[in-house]
Amino acid sequence: MSRTEVNGMSAPQGEAVRIDGKAMAKAMTEEIRQKVDVLVEQGHGLPGLAVVLVGNDPASEVYVKNKALQTHRAGMRSFMHMMPESTSQDELLRLIADLNSNEKIHGILVQLPLPKQIDPAIVTNAIDPAKDVDGLGEANTGRLALGLNNGIVPCTPLGCLKLLQSVHQDMTGLHAVIIGASNLVGRPMAQLLLQQNCTVSIAHIHTKNIQELARQADILVVATGKAGLVRGDWIKPGATVIDVGITRVPTAEGKSRLVGDVVFDEARQIAGHITPVPGGVGPMTIACLLHNTFQAAQGAL
């Protein structure tokens, strides 16, 4: 595959090819819809996804509404549960227990972050592992760490992997560097890349000479939430760069725009392939949530 073409996309000679997560997510959602249609034709009910939002964080509200919209586009049922900021942990756990026992619901997602009075670990682990479509509970996390194929993989790392697979048919022996060691992205991403036979390094806030490590990466995944952390001179020529970060920053015109953890205009002059922000990892995260929900529905048959 040439540097200037991937999935029908092109780039000027000397610039990285943009990996179009939006287009990939649209195709993936349509494929899921077709599978749902077959499921219904076979006499089964529609897969159902329950999304729970506690509080009124504006960004979370946007994410939740978008997830509901995409769930409907995939031909599945969406169940929304909006709870006030004052919701207690016990109240939330009672709702989760009800959702666990509801046969119409195959996937449960509790939107993070949660109010300070609620422990996210307790809430996540209260979700039935078979319905934990975010893949963040201890059961699914453990299955991934053991290299088992019978668990649910977290949506964002799974989306990143699919983006990488659009560029690399075989990742065996490639050096993958992940900047960010969170349980949401960095750690599960490392497990997925190990399963692809990559040599994996994880960098974090305490890593020394992080720029030098990043420059060794054939695959660079950045998930820190720190806008513009990775500059062009951190990148190995021809590397594939997956930018998970997304931050809204003010512009000189008094407006705002979304940027990633990687300085895109610098990185695209050095990298071989790169995800944009927005339009890269974000849409694939939601598509993988739909994928996980469909898989959970199949498992419940």
TrEMBL record:
Keywords: Amino-acid biosynthesis, Histidine biosynthesis, Hydrolase, Methionine biosynthesis, Multifunctional enzyme, NADP, One-carbon metabolism, Oxidoreductase, Purine biosynthesis. The keyword Phosphoprotein does not apply. Pathway: One-carbon metabolism; tetrahydrofolate interconversion. InterPro entries: Aminoacid_DH-like_N_sf, NAD(P)-bd_dom_sf, THF_DH/CycHdrlase, THF_DH/CycHdrlase_cat_dom, THF_DH/CycHdrlase_CS, THF_DH/CycHdrlase_NAD-bd_dom. It catalyses: (6R)-5,10-methylene-5,6,7,8-tetrahydrofolate + NADP(+) = (6R)-5,10-methenyltetrahydrofolate + NADPH; (6R)-5,10-methenyltetrahydrofolate + H2O = (6R)-10-formyltetrahydrofolate + H(+). PROSITE patterns: THF_DHG_CYH_1, THF_DHG_CYH_2. Its EC number is 1.5.1.5, 3.5.4.9. It holds the Pfam family THF_DHG_CYH. Catalyzes the oxidation of 5,10-methylenetetrahydrofolate to 5,10-methenyltetrahydrofolate and then the hydrolysis of 5,10-methenyltetrahydrofolate to 10-formyltetrahydrofolate. PANTHER family: C-1-TETRAHYDROFOLATE SYNTHASE, CYTOPLASMIC, C-1-TETRAHYDROFOLATE SYNTHASE, CYTOPLASMIC-RELATED. This is Bifunctional protein FolD.
